[in-house]
């Protein structure tokens, strides 16, 4: 299960369908459910079809349903047509972000000044190429800013506008139901005293509230399929993993 990333596959598939003007078939459909009123217009595609041309943008919806009742729905629309190569060059830097960073505010201002001078010396450079290089070839340092034009670079070089020092500490996110598997955490229980100690504390907190053993249900497929078991088990495993990471010196700025 993709846990927090569940649904992103549907988004990627839908974006690709919009871009390529096709409606992909639904895989593995051998027979349609009898409980759906198909004649009303709902249709399952059993073959890939071209997206019908219309006088409106192509749109599609992606839904994600959680076991707890969460229902997220996003509507995607085709993007605007891109300008041709010549238009892109003539358009200048408008709308293309140029990320900058430095160890100190002074270093950030110096980088902005160097980039502004470089762009004046190389007016043939495409703004999008400059943005790509800055994004993919530079290390993100503590002081950061974003510029959208050479004039903004000049202003950054002489003042502190848009500079910000980021808190780079990590955040721990606990996944929900669906991320479990039979045998999870068993190896850590036998190899990490820190993890095992945290799990033992959780087991002690559960004592008297549940009728099962935390250590035993980790290898019990049937038990892990029960909501009243898997939810506290996942909580215990995540809390214990957080304790383990903290023992390594990884201290989160938040836990979610």
UniProtKB/TrEMBL annotation:
Domain of life of the organism encoding this protein: Bacteria
Keyword Thylakoid recorded: no
Domain Polyketide synthase C-terminal extension: 42-144
GO molecular function: fatty acid synthase activity; oxidoreductase activity, acting on paired donors, with incorporation or reduction of molecular oxygen
GO biological process, one term: fatty acid biosynthetic process
InterPro entries, alphabetized: Ac_transferase_dom_sf, Acyl_transferase_dom, Acyl_Trfase/lysoPLipase, Luciferase-like_sf, PKS_assoc, PKS_NRPS_Biosynth_Enz, Thiolase-like
Malonyl-CoA:ACP transacylase (MAT) domain: residues covered: 171-255
This protein's name: Polyketide synthase
Organism of provenance: Streptomyces geldanamycininus
């Amino acid at each position: 299960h993709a846990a927090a990333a569940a649904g992103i596959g549907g988004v990627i598939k839908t974006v690709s369908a919009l871009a390529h003007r096709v409606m992909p078939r639904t895989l593995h459909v051998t027979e349609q459910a009898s409980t759906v009123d198909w004649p009303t217009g709902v249709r399952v595609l059993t073959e890939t079809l071209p997206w019908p041309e219309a006088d409106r943008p192509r749109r599609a919806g992606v839904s994600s349903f959680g076991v707890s009742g969460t229902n997220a729905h996003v509507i995607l629309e085709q993007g605007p047509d891109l300008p041709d190569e010549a238009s892109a060059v003539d358009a200048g830097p408008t709308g293309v972000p140029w990320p900058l960073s430095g160890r100190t505010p002074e270093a950030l201002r110096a980088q902005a000044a160097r980039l502004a001078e470089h762009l004046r010396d190389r007016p043939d450079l495409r703004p999008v190429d400059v943005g790509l290089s800055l994004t993919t070839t530079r290390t993100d340092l503590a002081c950061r800013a974003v510029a959208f034009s050479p004039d903004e670079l000049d202003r950054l070089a002489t003042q502190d506008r848009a500079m910000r020092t980021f808190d780079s500490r990590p955040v721990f996110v606990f996944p929900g139901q669906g991320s479990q598997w039979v045998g999870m955490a068993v190896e850590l229980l036998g190899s990490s005293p820190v993890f095992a100690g945290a799990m033992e504390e959780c087991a002690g907190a559960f004592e008297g509230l549940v009728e099962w053993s935390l250590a035993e249900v980790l290898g019990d497929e049937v038990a892990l399929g029960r909501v009243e078991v898997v939810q506290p088990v996942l909580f215990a495993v995540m809390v214990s993993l957080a304790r383990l990471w903290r023992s390594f010196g990884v201290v989160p700025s938040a836990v979610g």
